[in-house]
Amino acid sequence: MAQIALDDDLIERKFTDNFTYLQEKVSRITDIVDILIEKRVINLHDRPKFLNVNKSQKEKVDDVLQEVMTKKKFNEFIFALMKTGQSTVIEILTLDNTEFCAFIGSPKQEAVSTSTKTVNELETELKQQAHKIVKLEAEKKKLQQDINHLKDVQQGVRRTIEEKTSRIELLQKENIEKNKLVKDVQQGVRRMIEEKTSLIELLEKENIEKNKLVKDVQQLQHDLNSSNKEIKMKTEYIEKLEKLYTDAVEQTKFVNKQIKENTKERQKDREEREMDRKHREQRDQELNTKMELMLNSIAQLKIDKDENKTTGTKKTTLDPLKNKASNLRKKKI
């Protein structure tokens, strides 16, 4: 497999768009760092910094990706992925029209009949449909990753809402209890006034906190609703992509059927031409045989005539037609 070189702006956009995917899917980071050191992307003395044992796998990958994007050494990184056998990640970063044509190969050029040209056109259309299927699959995979990420975020938002709701309920219970204490203080003796005042101040602080929590919950609820809308839109888009994928597969089947039918018609034409050739050869052979028999008969008659003139006697000659019939019977036997 040869190294694939892409336009820096294009591949940089692909790195940016798929950064989260790369963080999760890139593996064998130690081998990748060693290859990047060989390619002079990373300095040898920086190797411990990128492979620090105290860092998680995701942090190591993130550091390497940031270094590659900073130095714009995308082709060297793809080479490292190729050497470590991470073809799926390479496809995400390099799949476009040029790489697809290189993958499926250029169409063969042959000087053939009109029917063969039609087959070539069908083959080209088949390859275009296959390309469309691959692009739709890649886009579907990207959207599914986004949906999974949004679902994770949604779960975190729900947990936060539940925690803050529990906190609000707890504060409400505390407020009820403290309001009761305030009434008790109001009905108590004068010496409890200071204690009552302190309690009121505490309640005011807690009310401020409660109002803040209510606002946070409202904001989180709004974010949750936005996430649900986005998930719905992307789900509908995936359904459209799946329909396009199904249509493309059906069209591919139809093209394959047309190719088979054209192949059968060409085979039938060849067989008919072969039978015509054999018939012509047989007719030519029969005509040659008849001509040869007629010439022999004429020659024999001339010889007999010359001999009759020389000897003055009438010699019995063989009937040419009878000789021809006799020869034909012998030939059939």
From TrEMBL:
**Record keyword Coiled coil present:** yes
Sorted keywords for this record are:
Coiled coil
Q: Which sequence ranges form a coiled-coil region, renumbered to this chain?
A: 119-230
Q: Which domain of life is it from?
A: Eukaryota
For region Disordered, the annotated ranges are: 260-289, 301-333
**Coiled coil is among the record's keywords:** yes
Protein name per Swiss-Prot or TrEMBL: CARD domain-containing protein
